[in-house]
């Protein structure tokens, strides 16, 4: 019973975490639910940028790629190499779209939060920021990753997938169960904490010395934002590959 109670308590903690707030927020009421409007707005902007860029880049494909098409193919090859390295040569193909979507959404979200002057858009409460600056977004991305690696393991091995919980010895059953709950926790808090800390670190010198001094800090923020997107995508691919291997 104790083993069953722990996952339930962990899920309750996830629900409580979704209520964590930093600063003020602008809310919408949709179907009886209260949602963070600024997160939806910036998320839609990021999605529109990704879809628009992809559409423009491939609307007239060339045999010898140039310009935007060349850049898109370079990004695709980068994501393929990442998925191939973490998942394996035989299994990586179907997971390239998922890994690529995670990487590009987080990367563009992080950079949009660091580069775009969201402050000029006035809201009744709060202000616009990167979608990954909200714990709800990072928890949702982490839970999608969890669903993905459970699906990968069950698709590959069926119910035999759950045999990994008693390997190499049944004594490790509680620890192996705990591992599946710590993975999304670490993914969500790592991304949320780093992006929030980066924005706070930039905000302080900007408020004190609004010209030259904050620029190096902003460049460092761009670098760490890209690294966080790469780390999240790499870990997501690694978890999926691990679920299909049958051993830790």
From TrEMBL:
User: What family does the entry list?
Assistant: Belongs to the ATPase A chain family.
Which cellular component appears as one GO term in the record? Answer: chloroplast thylakoid membrane
Query: What does the record say about its membrane topology?
Result: Multi-pass membrane protein
Subcellular locations according to the entry? Membrane; Plastid, Chloroplast thylakoid membrane
| General function of this protein | Key component of the proton channel; it plays a direct role in the translocation of protons across the membrane.
Database matches in PANTHER family: ATP SYNTHASE SUBUNIT A, CHLOROPLASTIC
Taxonomic lineage from the root:
Eukaryota, Viridiplantae, Streptophyta, Embryophyta, Tracheophyta
Q: Could you tell me what this protein is called? A: ATP synthase subunit a, chloroplastic
Q: Please provide, alphabetically and separated by semicolons, the GO molecular function terms listed in this UniProt record.
A: proton-transporting ATP synthase activity, rotational mechanism
Q: Which CDD domains match?
A: ATP-synt_Fo_a_6
Transmembrane feature ranges: 35-58, 95-115, 135-154, 191-213, 219-240
- Organism, as annotated: Torreya fargesii
């Amino acid at each position: 019973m104790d083993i069953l109670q722990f996952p339930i308590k962990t899920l309750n903690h996830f629900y409580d975490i979704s209520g964590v707030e930093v600063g003020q927020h602008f809310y919408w009421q949709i179907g009886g639910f209260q949602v963070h409007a600024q997160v939806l707005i910036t998320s839609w902007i990021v999605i529109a940028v990704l879809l628009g860029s992809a559409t423009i880049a491939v609307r007239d494909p060339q045999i010898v790629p140039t310009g935007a098409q060349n850049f898109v193919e370079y990004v695709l090859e980068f994501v393929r190499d990442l998925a191939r390295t973490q998942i394996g040569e035989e299994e990586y193909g179907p997971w390239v779209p998922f890994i690529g979507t995670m990487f590009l959404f987080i990367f563009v979200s992080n950079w949009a939060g660091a580069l775009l002057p969201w402050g000029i858009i006035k809201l009744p409460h709060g202000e616009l920021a990167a979608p990954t600056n909200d714990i709800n977004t990072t928890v949702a991305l982490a839970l999608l990753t969890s669903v993905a690696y459970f699906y990968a393991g069950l698709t590959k091995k069926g119910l035999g997938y759950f045999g990994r919980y008693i390997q190499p010895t049944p004594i490790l059953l509680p620890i192996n169960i705990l591992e599946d709950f710590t993975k999304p926790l670490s993914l969500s808090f790592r991304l949320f904490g780093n992006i929030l800390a980066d924005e706070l670190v930039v905000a302080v010198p900007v408020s004190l010395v609004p010209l030259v001094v904050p620029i190096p800090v902003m460049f460092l923020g761009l670098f760490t934002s890209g690294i966080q997107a790469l780390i999240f995508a790499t870990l997501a691919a690694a978890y999926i590959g691990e679920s299909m291997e049958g051993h830790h």
